[in-house]
């Protein structure tokens, strides 16, 4: 034992700054953990790229008539971007279940901070990681015929960042109730594919049967894929017929939902799910 | 006179019809090492969880560090350190990072963090291993790191829930060494639970808990004295003659136990010289045993702690069946 005087720590009363420190450290942990896990970076990109290059290339041989000469991969690109973001966001949210199972969540839950700080830190951390993954996909744009125009990159980046947050919030909301990592994985596997298929990532969203139209309009992913596709298409030179057929835009009872409105839908959903997650966490323990 | 570190009045926790804690009262002075002793399922962890603000009491009130555990939850949380039965470390991070994360969550001022971290890690002998990932630590090292982390924000009360459970005897005693050091070094009250009777001896005072109630509360010595007499065992060449001789000369009722003539007397250490002087037979060996806390538990509950544990497990299983999965 040293004979040095005891360093007594004075913990200050709860302040907004204290909550920000808590949010930041929870965020930082998510990011550091992702950065040290190269395998995860690769695996969560693998499936989207498989869809884009293998399915996109294979299907383009039978779909070339329908796309009016447009490369099918270019059409699929916005949906694939959303998919990459979705995988990463969901897996980030899984860390909550993981932390619960291995006990670490308790360390955070007993700290003298608001539960909302933990939830926010987690959502922002997952969103950061998913955004990073999205950026990797943006870097690949040139390979599928999407031009690297600054406005396109900025707008697509903004939209996928928003999507990354909302999907992480969705994952965190689901994770709040689940105690086993296997259950969470099974549940998200069950949710991810339908959300992806219904969103119109792989097909234009008009002229669908009624049931599919209804499902499409309530799928949150629809409102992220649509604006991204519109941004991408606005930078392509296409005949208006092709543009109209492939990028019809989401409608609500015949009304064309503007891209900003779509973004607002995603944002509101993200905030609502964050709120639900906070309530759920405040009840647990 | 300082205010008590912990004060509890009529604390009750009920799950449906099952009463896990049935109204307990206690007061713990500042600087005390207080032990909660009892079999698994006696209500120790439920009580400690209420004091740590993790469970809301069904009835009654509790103050920790002078603050109500329900209405002033956050103030209580800032003033307590917690070491749980199960590890709550992030094993993917280094010890240093775990401590830094804790400091950020608790709002430890940045300018004192480095010194404080050095101090707590030094105290538990992990300073040299601070840059290692926790996944490379042994069970005992993890527990020590958790104790260091619990102390990082200078809590007034440190709660240790079964701090040595699952550790080998050598590691257990080293943990006790650290806790003893800690008492000297820090101005802190320690509240711990254990179901190891031998460990409870390290405490200033002990509450024995069984079936959700405190059935005895005193210093280990006083509790043992209350059980009364020491147990003396002697070995002789002719045990039956020895039993008769004890009866006739000293009026002592002896019996055979564990292959030796066994009897109880007050102040065994004073009785033995008298025995040697006056006993007609040759004594080959003698053994005087003070009552242990096991004897104390036995005398208060009528069963050994091991039997009580088996019973409690059945009770828990039974109530779990009635009330569905207990979270």
Please give the structural blueprint.
The complex is a heterodimer of chains A (285) and B (327).
Chain A: H1 16-35, H2 38-63, H3 72-101, H4 104-109, H5 115-139, H6 150-175, H7 181-198, H8 210-218, H9 222-234, H10 240-246, E1 251-252, E2 255-256, H11 259-283
Antiparallel strand pairs in A: 1-2
Helix pairs in contact in A: 1-5, 2-3, 3-5, 3-6, 3-7, 3-9, 5-6, 5-11, 6-9, 6-11, 9-11
Chain B: E1 6-15, E2 18-28, E3 33-37, H1 44-51, E4 59-64, E5 67-68, H2 73-78, E6 80-83, H3 95-106, H4 110-123, H5 139-151, E7 157-161, H6 169-185, E8 189-194, H7 197-200, E9 205-210, E10 213-218, H8 220-227, E11 230-236, H9 239-250, E12 255-257, E13 260-265, H10 268-278, E14 283-289, H11 293-301, H12 305-323
Parallel strand pairs in B: 3-8, 3-9, 6-7, 7-8
Antiparallel strand pairs in B: 1-2, 1-4, 4-5, 9-10, 11-13, 11-14, 12-13
Helix pairs in contact in B: 4-5, 8-11
Strand content of chain A: under 5%
Number of strands of chain B: 14
Rg of chain B, rounded, reads 24 Å
Mean pLDDT of chain A: 89
């Amino acid at each position: 034992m040293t004979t040095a005087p005891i360093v007594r720590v004075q913990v200050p009363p709860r302040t907004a700054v204290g909550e920000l420190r808590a949010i930041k450290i929870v965020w930082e942990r998510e990011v550091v953990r992702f950065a040290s896990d190269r395998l995860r970076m690769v695996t969560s990109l693998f499936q989207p790229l498989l869809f884009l290059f293998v399915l996109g290339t294979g299907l383009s041989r039978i779909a070339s008539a329908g796309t009016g000469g447009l490369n099918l991969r270019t059409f699929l690109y916005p949906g694939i971007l959303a998919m990459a973001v979705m995988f990463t966001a969901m897996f980030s949210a899984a860390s909550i279940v993981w932390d619960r199972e291995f006990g670490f969540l308790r360390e955070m839950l007993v700290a003298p901070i608001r539960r909302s700080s933990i939830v926010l830190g987690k959502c922002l951390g997952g969103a950061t990681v998913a955004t990073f993954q999205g950026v990797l996909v943006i870097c690949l744009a040139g390979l599928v015929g999407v031009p690297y125009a600054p406005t396109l990159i900025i707008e697509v980046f903004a939209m996928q960042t928003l999507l990354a947050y909302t999907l992480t919030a969705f994952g965190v909301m689901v994770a709040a109730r689940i105690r086993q990592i296997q259950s969470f994985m099974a549940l998200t596997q069950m949710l991810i594919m339908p959300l992806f298929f219904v969103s119109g990532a792989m097909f234009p969203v008009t002229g669908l049967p009624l049931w599919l139209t209804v499902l499409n309009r309530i799928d949150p992913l629809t409102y992220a894929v649509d604006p991204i596709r519109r941004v991408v298409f606005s930078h392509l030179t296409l005949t208006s017929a092709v543009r109209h057929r492939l990028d019809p835009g989401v409608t609500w009872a015949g009304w064309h939902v503007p891209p900003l409105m779509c973004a607002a839908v995603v944002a509101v959903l993200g905030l609502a799910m964050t709120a639900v997650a906070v309530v759920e966490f405040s009840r647990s323990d | 006179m300082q205010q008590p570190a912990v004060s509890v009045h009529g604390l009750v926790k009920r799950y449906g019809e099952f009463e896990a804690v049935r109204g307990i009262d206690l007061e713990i002075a500042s600087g005390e090492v207080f032990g909660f002793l009892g079999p698994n399922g006696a209500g120790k962890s439920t009580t400690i969880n209420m004091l740590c603000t993790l469970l809301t009491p069904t009835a009654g009130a509790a103050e920790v560090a002078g603050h109500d555990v329900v209405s002033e939850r956050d103030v209580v949380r800032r003033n307590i350190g917690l070491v749980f039965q199960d590890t709550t470390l992030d094993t993917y991070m280094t010890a240093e990072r775990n401590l830094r994360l804790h400091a950020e969550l608790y709002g430890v001022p940045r300018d004192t963090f480095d010194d404080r971290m050095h101090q707590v890690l030094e105290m538990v002998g992990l300073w040299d291993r601070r840059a290692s990932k926790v996944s490379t630590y042994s069970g005992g090292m993890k527990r020590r790191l958790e104790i260091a982390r619990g102390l990082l924000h200078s809590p007034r009360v440190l709660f240790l829930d079964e701090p040595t459970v699952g550790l080998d005897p050598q590691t257990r005693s080293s943990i006790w060494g650290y806790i003893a050091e800690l008492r000297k070094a820090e101005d802190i009250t320690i509240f711990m639970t254990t179901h190891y009777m031998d460990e409870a001896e390290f405490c200033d005072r002990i509450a024995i808990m069984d079936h959700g109630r405190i059935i005895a509360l005193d210093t280990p010595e006083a509790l043992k004295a209350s059980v009364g007499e020491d147990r003396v065992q002697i070995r002789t060449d002719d045990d039956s003659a020895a039993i008769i001789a004890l009866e006739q000369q000293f009026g002592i009722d002896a019996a055979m136990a564990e292959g030796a003539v066994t009897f109880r007397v007050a102040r065994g250490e004073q009785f033995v010289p008298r025995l040697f002087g006056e006993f007609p037979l040759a004594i080959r060996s003698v053994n005087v045993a003070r009552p242990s806390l096991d004897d104390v538990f036995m005398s208060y509950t009528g069963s050994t702690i091991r039997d009580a544990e088996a019973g409690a497990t059945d009770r828990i299983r039974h109530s779990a069946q009635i009330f569905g999965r207990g979270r």
